[in-house]
Design a protein that fits this description.
mainly beta, membrane, EC 3.1.1.4
Length: about 575
Amino acid sequence: KTCVDACNSNQYIDTTDITIPKCSDCNILCLTCTDEMICKTCADGKFLNTNTLLCEACDTSCATCENGTDKTKCLSCSSPLYYQQLEKKCVTECYSNQYLNSSNICKACNSTCATCIDGISCSTCSSGSFINSESGLCELCDPNCKTCNVSKTTCLSCNDPQYLQINQTCQNSCLPKQYPDLTKKCQPCNISCLSCINGNSCSTCDEGMYLDSKTNYCLPCSANCKTCVDNSSKQCTECFPNYFMTQDHKCVSACQQNQYVDAFRTCQSCNATCLTCSNAISCNTCDVGHYKNTRSGFCEYVIIIADLRRWNTSNQCITCNNPQVLLQTKKCADKCDIQQFSDSNKICQQCDPTCLTCSNSNTCDTCEEGKYIKRSTLKCELCGLTCKTCIKKDMCLSCKQNYLLTKNQQCKQECDESYFPDSQGICQPCGSNCSNCKQYTECSECFQGFYLYNGLCSNEMVCFGNTYLDENQCKTECSQTKFKNMKTNRCDPCHISCEKCTQAGDNKCLECKKGLVFNNGKCEGQLQETQEIQKKQEAHLTSKLMFKAYLVITIYTIIACIICHVLDN
């Protein structure tokens, strides 16, 4: 027996004999105690039962557990389990709205997040929310948006029955010259359309255009037509104001000399005897060799002759028999030469030099390839340099070789973003939310906030087959420090000690973090950051124990002194 300043850590001061306090061993279950049967602290893997005041074994999942009566309330976990701090239990995976910190503790994400990688910012949001790029947290979309991105009013999809506009807002219907696709997203019609059923098929056209049955595009009617039909001659059915319909369904500024305008603004032929007339029942003036009969109102022959053609002294025609016309070569023919028109006297006159065909000297009817009729002048002008045919200079209908027709009727060497060239050289839209594709269902790149799978873009990242979700992409191989989770098709993090691994757990490593030693699947030793944390914890615990021991010794010393003082007296 010896006298000591303090008892060992697994002993208590026994005051059964108050005259001579002694150090007695704690119960074998205790780490430290205040009495033989009253534990104060317990060894790792045990907890202090507050009813019995003895140490009992924690649940096997716990490395340490909470004092009380429930052995499943863990304070730390056995490897490879993670500590679920909210429920004080050890789990194989954290909840979706939690993240794993460097101490293998499941911590709650910010309340706005659906998932996160740390407690500061979100990685995904619940439906109807988006990640604010400045705060990194999720915020609610505008009430009109079903989903959104970048800002609360930048919608990705809309609540029924609304449609997603091109400017990424939600409205009850698409704007004019737009159509809704299968995902209820408004897409631009072809620029020639007034309305359409898809990006390549017009359903109605603007005034002065007609719906071509072969291409389903709106093409220009002939000059001065307000409406026309789809056939080889593009027959007018209605003219613009101040123009009149001819018998061959063209619109002209004035009828021919031997015609009159009826109530429907259509040019009708005068009686065959008339040179000019105001209606079908009387003549105003008569042709050569005729006179007006005042009783009938029609023109009659002065004399009967076999041929009304007249010649000059050089044997050149001056006038021709109906229905022939006088060519510029002074010969009679059934029709004028190309780039000529028949005037009111049935004499062939030269069209404007820009015209291919015309109805008068100021109005082109058709143009050569690579030209179009300009509405303000009714003359033919050149299309853009890359156009083969066009409606106007900057609105192509088809393109020259090695050029593609874009959605805006421009001819370029490449299609715009989210469009692809079809076999006809026309740029067609990719599938919804796709920024780059080869075909409608062969997307190779998606817009921000969407994920590529099987050639299509989805707003929810899902991987299938032999691909695994890693950094918002489906990959066949996981990045460093992650392994393939076959159940979820995700790349999950290895144990904190592993550089590479096959599964979760500290015994599934293939390679170790720097500073650790590989031993049969385990990485032994301690990471630098873990060592520093443990050193701080041990120093703190030692300080607390020493302070408590000092208090106990001081108290017993004071008691002993008081007893001695009493005995001496």
